[in-house]
Each structure stands twice: as C-alpha cells, then as structure tokens.
Amino acid sequence: MLAPVTWSSDGWPSVQFVNNAWAASYPYPNVPRPPRAMKPLTGTDTFSGSALGPEWEWNHNPDNTKWTLDGGLKLETATVTSDLYSARNTLTHRILGPQSTGTIELDVSGMKDGDSAGLALLRAASAYVAVEKSGGSLKVVMVDGLSMDGNWNTTSTGKAEASAPLSGSTIWLRLAADITPGSGKLGKFSYSTDGTTFSSLGPAYAMDNAWQFFMGYRYGIFNFATSALGGSVLVKSFDLTAP
C-alpha cells in the first residue's frame, strides 16, 4: 500500500499513522492518474540537469564539496584510501534485470598520480574496471576479489587481474551484468577508446547471491585517491541498455 510520509526538520521520514496504526485507506497521492508518460529505465544520462535524478544513490553520505554537475558529473577525489568500500562519493545505480549493461564515458585528464576512477559491480563481494594513474602514465585495470564481512568491515581490497596501457584523455568503461536469480551469475568488464569498439578486460566475475546483503548488486561510479587529494574525473555520460 501507499501511505503519506512526512519529514522532520532533520530530514527523518515518518509514516502518517491513524491511532498509532496503519489506516484502512489513505487519500490518493498527488500524482497524475494513469495513463501517464514514464521515464524509461534504459537510456543515456548526460548529467546535464541541475540535480542528480532520483535513480542515483550515493554509497556514503557524500562530501558535497567534491562533486558538481558541469558538462557532466565531475567527481573530485574525496578520500585517500586503497579501499573502494571506504571511498566517499561513489555514485550507485540499480542494475536492471535480468541482464543489462552500464557504460560510462570518462574524461580522465584531471587525474593525479595515485588516483583510481571507474565502474564497479558493487556489493559485499565486488569487482571493477578502472583507470589508474601512476608516474604520469595511465592504464586501465580490472580488479576483483573485493570483499566485506557481515559487519561491513573490509576483508580484501582486491587484486588486479588484467591491465592495459592507456593513451588519450577519454575512455569508455563497460559492465555487463546478469542478475537472473540463482548462483554463479556473471559480470563482464570491457573498455573502449573510441566508444564503438570494446575490448574485454579480465575474467568474468561470478557474483555472490548470499542473503546477508539482500540489497543486491549496483553499478558504482567512483574516483578515489591512494596518495593525495586534488585529482578529478568528468563522467560525461552513463548509458544503460538491456537485451
């Protein structure tokens, strides 16, 4: 059922009860009656508005001084860490089932040495494809084996399974995910330097479906520093497609 919700001054939501219980009925919400136009789940987000769409969710409470919408989504490094789970300002998006593909176009010209920015298959057991900068050079890398325990403590920051040198300042990173119910479903990573021809990177990643993290996998767009703050990337678009 749908019930009205109010928010307190500190932003906490509360359901409107009747005599301390759910009401037998509530007024129809103030939305247009069907039929009505609905935004499709698939398509391209160029982050051109003045605010993020409701389909986006930060993995932590964000540092709002470290991201802006200006010709795309600019993500400045907000955390010095080698642990993706500890990095702030990872922006997540629900994966469309049973299969879908997420692709980001990334301008990496603002990255600093030690930075890592990319697209993750994010859950308690995770993997990602990212651009890393070291010694002034860029490479694209696929990392898997990231894990957390039941108390949200990081137990592994993962290991690199494959990498390739990168020249130029723009790259497309892609994640194809099969979240059909059942075990052993795969996520596959690839990249492109022209937005048309994609090359697979690293092995397919077998996703975890244990009940402890019932919220499931999400696409995660991230940028964190392992050395020092000051770098940034520009996410020029996020494209969601389904078979």
SSE blueprint and pairings:
Elements: E1 5-7, E2 13-15, E3 43-45, E4 56-58, E5 67-69, E6 73-76, E7 91-94, E8 99-107, E9 115-122, E10 125-134, E11 137-148, E12 154-166, E13 170-178, E14 186-192, E15 199-200, E16 205-206, E17 218-225, E18 232-241
Antiparallel strand pairs: 1-2, 3-18, 4-7, 5-6, 6-18, 7-17, 8-13, 8-18, 9-10, 9-17, 10-11, 11-12, 13-14, 14-15, 14-16
Describe this protein's structure:
With 243 residues, the chain is mainly β. It has one domain (42-241): Sandwich (Jelly Rolls), CATH 2.60.120.200. Helix content is 0%, strand content 47%. The chain contains no helices and 18 strands. Strands 3, 5, 6, 8, 13, 14, 15, 16 and 18 form a nine-stranded antiparallel β-sheet that branches. A hairpin with a 3-residue loop joins strand 5 and strand 6. It is globular, with a radius of gyration of 20 Å.
